[in-house]
Amino acid sequence: MPRVLIVGASLGGLRAAEALRDAGFHGAISSVGAEAHPPYNRPPLSKDVLLGNATSDGVLAELAFPRKARLGEIDWRLGMSVAAVDLAQGEARLADGSRIHFDALIVATGLRPRRLQLTGATADRFVLRTLPDALALRARLVPGARIAIIGGGFIGCEVAASARRRGCATTVIEPLIVPMQRALGQEFGAAMQALHEAAGIRFRTGRQVTGFEVDVSDRLHAVRLDDDSLVEADLAVEAVGSQPNTEWLAGNGFDLDDGILCDHRMAAIGHDRVAAVGDVARFPCLLFDDVPRRVEHWSIPGLTARRAAGHVARQLGVAVPDAPFAPLPTFWSDQLGLRIQCAGLPGLADRVGLLSGSLGPDSMRRDGAVMGYWRKDRQVGVAAIGVAPQRFINFQADLVRALQNCSL
Ligand SMILES: Cc1cc2nc3c(=O)[nH]c(=O)nc-3n(C[C@H](O)[C@H](O)[C@H](O)COP(=O)(O)OP(=O)(O)OC[C@H]3O[C@@H](n4cnc5c(N)ncnc54)[C@H](O)[C@@H]3O)c2cc1C
Fold it and tell me: Could you identify the atom of ligand 1 that is nearest to the CA of residue 46?
C-alpha cells in the first residue's frame, strides 16, 4: 500500500490529508508535526487569544480544527519534527532517530518568526507564531506594561491593538514610512496609523531598532533606535517577518531559496513525487503572472492543498481529473474593532486609488473605505476596511474579471 508522508501538521498539512482522501487516495498517510497540539487555527492568536483569559486547554477547545470522519486512519506523530529526508531512499528521519518510509511527500512546514540579530533582554523578547507564544506574551500584557512592538506589519499592528485594549502603553517601531505599507500601500497605511494613534498607540516610523537596553539582571528597560533615541519598554515583540522551515529538505536538490520552489501543480521542481502547500510553498499565481511567490495568507493552505493532493494522488495511480489552478490570494485582519479585507496582490501595484468611501478615521468607522490597486493600468488588488463581507465580494468579483481580461 503506498504511503504519503505529510510533514507539518497545521492548516496546510491537515487540509492536504483531507484533500488526499477527497481525491480518492485510500493508501497510508503519515502526518508528522513539530507542535505537540493537534492542528489549530492561528489567526485568533494575535486577536481573541491575546484579549481573552482562556487557559491553553480552553483555547485549544476553541481553535483546534475538527477532525473530519472522512480522514479515516492517519498515522499522527505530533510533537515530533522531521530532521532530514532522503528522497533517493524514500525515507524520512525523525528527531527521535526513527524513520518513516514514503512513496510521496507533502511539505507543509510553514514558517517561523525571524529574530533580530541583537543580544540581551532574553526573558523580555517575544515572538508570535504558536499557541505557547501567545500565552507567554499574554501573561505580560498587564495594564500599564510598556510594550515595544518591533515591526508594523499585520501581526505587529494586531498585537498593538490587543495590547492597547489590555491597557498597555504601546509603541510600534517600523522602518518604513507607515505601518502595513508593503501590503496596503502608503495611503491606506497612513490611515491605519491614524486609527491606531486615535486609540492611544504610539508610532516611531522610519526607524530601525539597534539594541536592547538592559539592567544588571538583563531585564529590558528600553529599546534603542537608529537615531540613538530610546523607547522605554518592559517587553518587546519582534514582528519582523518570518522564515520558511525548509532546512530538513537540504541535500535533495530542491530550490530552497525562499520556501520550496514549486510549479503550478504545486509539485517541487524536479521532483514529481514531492509537493508543497501553504506558507512554505513558492509557486506561480497564474492569475497575475508566472513569477513564483510565497503567499502568507490563511486562504492559501486550503487552496494549494487541494491542488497538491490531486497531483500526488495522480502520481500514485489514482485517476483524478485535472482542472485549471489560478487561486486568488485573500486575507483579513481585525484591528481596533474594524475588519480589513484584501484580495489579490496589492504589493505589486504602481498606482492606488479609492473605489469607495474615504480614509479619515471617522468615515472609515462610519461608512468603510475600499482601495483599488493597479499595475500598468491592470487592477491587481482590492482592500477594504469596515465593509461588510457581502459587499466586499462584489469588489473581489470585479478584480477577478479584471485579472482574467488582461495580463501584466
Ligand atoms: C499570529 C498570526 C495571526 C494570523 N492572522 C491571519 C489573519 O488574520 N488572516 C490571514 O489570512 N492569515 C493570518 N495568519 C496566517 C495564517 O495563519 C497562515 O497563513 C497559516 O497558518 C499557514 O498555514 P501552514 O500550514 O502553511 O503553516 P503553519 O501554520 O506555519 O504550520 C506549519 C507547521 O509545520 C510544523 N513544522 C515545521 N517544521 C517541521 C518539521 N521539520 N517537522 C515537522 N513539523 C514541522 C510547524 O511546527 C507548524 O506546526 C496569521 C498567522 C499568525 C502566526
Answer: 1
